[in-house]
Amino acid sequence: MFAALLGVLTLVLSCACRDDEPELDNVRSFTVGGEQAVEVVPAGTPRGSVIYLHGFGDGASVITGKAKRTAVVERLVAAGYVVAASDAHGNAWGNPASQADYVDLAAELRARHGTSATYLLAESMGALSALHIVAEHQIGDLLGTAFVSPFVDYRLPLGQDYEDSVRAAWGGGMPSSTDNPAEIPAAEFAGAHLRFYISKDDETTVTSQQAQPLITRLEGIADVTYVFCTGGHVAPDCFRPDDVTTWFESLRASQ
Q1: Is the pLDDT of residue 161 over 90?
Q2: Which of 197, 204, 183 is nearest to 241 (CA)?
Q3: What is the three-state SS of 143-174?
Q4: Helices and strands, number each (H, E), in the chain
Q5: Closest among 41, 31, 37, 77 to 54, alpha carbons compared
Q6: Comparing C-alpha atoms, which of 88, 225, 204, 186 is closest to residue 149?
Q7: Maximal CA-CA distance, the chain
Q8: In the chain, fewer beta carbons within 10 Å around the N or the C end?
Q9: What order do you get walking across the sheet with 223-229 strand by strand?
Q10: What is the number of alpha carbons within 13 Å of residue 37 lying toward its C-beta?
C-alpha cells in the first residue's frame, strides 16, 4: 500500500512540468551562503520581504515557474513586496542547514532592500523549516507565515524512498521528536501569526493527519487561521494571491 502511495506522492511532488510558465519582470539571481537564490523585486522600494520555502523536488526557481505560484508572486510584488526563494539544500526536509539558508536569505534581503518586515510562504515540505524558524524565533522581524498543503509530521508513514531522502537530509537517521515540528511544544508558537491553505482532498499530505492536528493544538496560543481549498496536493486553488496578500497587509498594518 505504501509503495503505491509513494508512487503517487513522487509523481505529484516532483513533477517537472514546464507548461504555462509566464515571464516575470525584475528577476534577479544571486548566491547566499553557497546556495542559489532568486528574487522578484517591485518597481519601487520594497515594503517587506516574502520568503518562499519550496517543496520536494524544487529549488529557488520555484517562484518563477508554474502560473499557480507566479500569480501569487506577481500579486505580492504589485503590492510592494520583494519575493525570494533559496535552493536551501534541496530536499532538506526541514533540517538545520535549510533553516539557516532561509534565515540567511532574510538577512540578505534586509541588507539589499532595507526592509524591516519578513513573511514566510511555505509549500508542502517547506513547512518543516518554516515551523522551526517560527517556533525558535530565528527571524527577528517575522510578522506572519502562510502554508500551502503543509507537511508537518515525520511520524506518519513516508514510504521507503522518502524515508531514505529524509535520512539523507538528517545525516543518516530519522529526525528526533525535538526535530519534529508536530511535537514542538505549542507554547513555543505563542503570539505567532499562522495561516493555512489546506484541502480535504489532499491525499499526499493528508490534511486530517498533518495540518489539522497542528492547527487544533495551536488554537488559543498562536493566531491561527485556515482556508479550505479544493483539489489535491498543492492544487491551484490552494494558491490564493489576493487572500495571502491581504493577510500579509493586515499584519503589517497592525504591527
Answers
A1: no
A2: 197
A3: EEEEEECCCCCCCCCCCHHHHHHHHHHCCCCC
A4: 7, 8
A5: 37
A6: 204
A7: 52
A8: N
A9: 27-32, 35-40, 81-86, 48-53, 118-123, 142-148, 193-199, 223-229
A10: 27
The single-letter code of the amino acid at 232 is G
> Is 90:101 a contact under the CB 8 Å cutoff?
no
Which residues, at least 6 apart from 109, have a Cβ–Cβ distance to it below 8 Å?
Answer: 39, 49, 51, 82, 84, 115, 118
Q: Which residues contact residue 29 at a Cβ distance below 8 angstroms, ignoring those fewer than 6 apart?
A: 36, 37, 38, 60
pTM: 0.90
Type of residue numbered 119: Y
All three cell numbers of 21: 510558465
| Domains (range + CATH), the chain | 2-254 (3.40.50.1820)
Q: Output the nine-digit C-alpha cell for 157.
A: 508513514
pLDDT digits (tens, 9 = 90+) for 133-151: 999 999 999 999 999 999 9
Residue 61 CA to residue 38 CA, distance in Å, equals 6
